[in-house]
Amino acid sequence: MTTPAQAAPAAVPPRLGDAPQLPSRSEAVAVLGRVADHWTAARPDPGDNGWANATFFG
After folding, report:
1. pTM of the model
2. Which of 23, 35, 38, 58 could form a disulfide with 27 if both were Cys (CB 3.0 to 4.6 A apart)?
3. How far is CA 17 from the centre of its chain?
4. Three-state DSSP class for 43?
């Protein structure tokens, strides 16, 4: 049995300056648009109007 004193130390979170740069809003929207275009082109039948499809296409 491992006691708290024997457990591995908690990982130190990265410093703010070490975090990866997030894409801009326009870059993210462009990627989402390409994904949506590919999805709809590969699936000519849009499916039902259930929650999952309605959320994606909403």
Report:
1. 0.51
2. 23
3. 22
4. coil
